[in-house]
Amino acid sequence: MNAICVFCGANFNGDEKLKTAIEELAELMVNQNISLVFGGGKVGVMGLIADAILQRGGKAIGVIPGFLMDKEVGHQGLTEMHVVENMHQRKQLMNDLCDGIITLPGGLGTLEEFFETLTWLQLGLHHKPIGLLNINGFYDFLLKQMDVMVENRFLKPANRELVLSSQNPQELLKLMQNFKAVPEEVWFKNQNLT
Ligand code: AMP
User: Fold this and answer.
1) Tens of pLDDT, residues 16-52
2) Which of 27, 55, 63, 116 is deepest in the core (most CB within 10 A)?
3) Which residue's alpha carbon is nearest to atom 7 within ligand 1?
4) Does some domain include residue 47?
5) How many domains does the chain have?
6) Is residue 189 part of a domain?
């Protein structure tokens, strides 16, 4: 992988474990010459991961819509900054610029970005690995919800397995490097469609 897109919160809750994990992830990415693609802001977890990459001499590439430049305080020290027109263009370009995706803790925006790229993978629109960095079990309920979808036959087991997750940045990167996308058709056979 040459570039990883990180989806993450525009807020930071002060969690020391999360801060340590962000630094570990940045260290691994810079050592392996992997650039960061992210939302381009200076605030929250976004700002922390960008600064951690830049402090170690790595490349950080931001993608931000013009109208969020003030609100998310567009980072001034990035290697590259792409200013786009809207949220759709932001997600599209972030996906185009990377060859793997990691989701760190965040809020609604983070989950929206995570699920959009995951559904694109499920539909075979890209074949990039998608990892959840499950610090402190932050995403346990989300993973459980996907298991409930499988139990209820709204999600195929093969597509549930597309989601890679670990508490540990190094292990997550390994899972992503070994990932081979084998999505199954979303539609169940012999299931009443009405
Ligand atoms: P949050 O997880 O709510 O803190 O948001 C994290 C990031 O996601 C922020 O940079 C938001 O601007 C961004 N975001 C929120 N909604 C969307 C969306 N629909 N498309 C792209 N980015 C979004």
Assistant:
1) 999 999 999 999 999 999 999 999 999 999 999 999 9
2) 63
3) 109
4) yes
5) 1
6) no
Pocket test for ligand 1, best of 70, 87, 91, 118 (most atoms within 8 A of CB): 87
Q: Report how far ligand 1's centroid is from the alpha carbon of 40 (Å).
A: 11
3-class SS letters over 45-92: HHHHHHHHHHHCCCCEEEEEEHHHCCCCCECCCCCEEEEECCHHHHHH
Q: Please give the distance, rounded to the nearest whole angstrom, from the Cα atom of residue 109 to the centre of ligand 1.
A: 3
CA of 116 to the centre of ligand 1 (A): 12
Domain range for 63: 3-177
Beta carbons of 55 and 84 less than 8 angstroms apart:
no
pLDDT of residue 194: 63
Tens of pLDDT, residues 47-104? 999 999 999 999 999 999 999 998 888 999 999 999 999 999 999 999 999 999 999 9
Per-residue tokens: 146? 């996907």
CB of 90 sitting under 6 A from ligand 1:
yes
CATH number at residue 97: 3.40.50.450
